[in-house]
Structures are given as C-alpha cells and as structure tokens.
C-alpha cells in the first residue's frame, strides 16, 4: 500500500482510528441529553442502523430516554413496537412527538419481527423503537434488522434483557441501562465505534414539564380509541296507503 493511498484513507471523515475518539465519525442524531451526547463517539445516536439498549425489561424509563429523538424534526414516521404498556398520548404530545406520524405496533413474535424489518427498510421511517419479543434472537435476525435499518435510513433501537450482553451482536452501538432512582438513568457503554467499553454517564430523564405529565406508559386511548358518534335509527317511514283495489 502506497503512502499516498494511506494518507488518503486517513484523511477520510469515515475512517475510524481504533480508540481515537477524534477519528470517529461525528454528526449523529442528538439524544436530547448533553451527557449522553458526550459519551457517544458520534455525538448522538447513529443516523441509521441498529442500536441495542440492554436493560432489566420492561424498563419504562427507556421510552422517556427516546422521547427527544421521537420528537425530532425528521419528516419520517415513528414506530413504537411491542411496548410493555400503552404509551401515553398526552406525554408524547407534551414532548413534541408528532402523533399524526406515530404508529404503535403489536403482533405475534415472527410477524412482529417481519413487520419491523419491512418497516425499517421501507425508507418511510425515521425511528423504530422495538422491545424484543420473548425468546432468543438469532444473530441472523439481528443482522437482517440492522441491514434493513441501514437500507431504509432508519434508527432502529432494540431493547433487550441485560443477560444477552455477552452474546455477539451486529449492532455497532450497545448500551447498558440501569435505574438507580426514579427519574434517573445510568448508561454504560458496552460497544461503540471509537469508544471505550465501560464509559458511563448519569441522566436525569424528566424535565419539569414532563414530571407533571402522566406516565409515558399510561393509556393510549387518545390515539387508538377515538369516540365514535352514536348511531341513530332513522325515523320510521310512513306507510303508503294500499292501492284502491285492495281497499275494503
């Protein structure tokens, strides 16, 4: 390899120089939390692809962590798939999430994973937040989700149990989450390009206006059960008089 070609490679913005954080690609999606942005080598969430959040499921604070990116300016749709409880429409609206472009998805395991892959690869989504269904997720399934999200330029965030932390994964970014106190979240880096495993930060999840809002995993009735107008029976039609030949 010639020195000129090597210098050309090193001058590229997408060349990662091992553990050199300055050589990592910046320009990620802001997380909405300054401490987390500083922790991540891209300065935020990846623009697209698979991210794994390893936490004690169901981990309700996870949705609060993702509210800023769900409320981002990207015009694409948002999907919350297989949440442990119905998200609260009022909390989502207060956080700026565009409810008109939000879909909450439920389904059986295989159908759910297939739908998430197709949605992420469709180029119609901005963010897909998926709570992993019960059972092991093979490496091939994770790889397809990652490639689909890359193809569709979608950020696919997958919540998985902490016990899978030692299992290999194609996700370039894997974070561990712990809840030391209500409204707080401890984040640990398990894997990221240009980052050091074990780096940590502590986040305060709920700004003041959200502390007064209902929990993020309350009823979604405002989104899924809009009241329907009562059906009124039409007024009775008057009986037509019988023809003359049938009159008594």
TrEMBL record:
**Signal sequence coordinates:** none
Q: Composition bias, kind Low complexity: at what positions? A: 213-224
Q: Which InterPro entries match?
A: P-loop_NTPase (IPR027417)
**Name of the featured protein:** SOS cell division inhibitor
Q: Which domain of life is it from?
A: Bacteria
Query: Which species is this UniProt entry from?
Result: Alloalcanivorax gelatiniphagus
Q: Region annotation Disordered: residue ranges?
A: 213-248
**Where in the sequence does UniProt note compositional bias of the Pro residues kind?**
232-248
């Amino acid at each position: 390899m010639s020195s000129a070609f090597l210098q050309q490679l090193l001058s590229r913005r997408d060349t990662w120089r091992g553990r050199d954080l300055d050589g990592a690609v910046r320009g990620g999606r802001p997380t909405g939390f300054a401490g987390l942005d500083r922790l991540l080598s891209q300065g935020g969430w990846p623009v697209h692809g698979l991210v794994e959040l390893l936490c004690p499921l169901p981990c309700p604070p996870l949705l609060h962590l993702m509210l800023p990116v769900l409320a981002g300016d990207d015009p694409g749709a948002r999907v919350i798939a297989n949440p442990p409880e119905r998200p609260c429409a009022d909390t989502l609206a207060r956080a700026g999430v565009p409810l008109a472009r939000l879909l909450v998805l439920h389904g059986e395991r295989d159908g759910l994973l297939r739908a998430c892959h197709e949605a992420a690869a469709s180029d119609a989504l901005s963010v897909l937040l998926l709570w992993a269904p019960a059972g092991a997720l093979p490496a091939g399934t994770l790889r397809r989700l990652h490639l689909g999200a890359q193809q569709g330029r979608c950020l696919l965030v997958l919540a998985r149990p902490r016990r899978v932390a030692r299992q290999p994964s194609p996700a370039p970014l894997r974070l561990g989450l712990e809840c030391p106190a209500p409204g707080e979240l401890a984040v640990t880096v398990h894997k990221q390009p240009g980052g050091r495993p074990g780096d940590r930060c502590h986040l305060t999840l709920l700004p003041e206006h959200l502390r007064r809002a209902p929990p993020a995993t309350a009823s979604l009735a405002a989104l899924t059960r809009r009241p329907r107008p009562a059906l009124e029976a039409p007024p009775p039609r008057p009986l037509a008089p019988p023809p003359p030949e049938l009159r008594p």
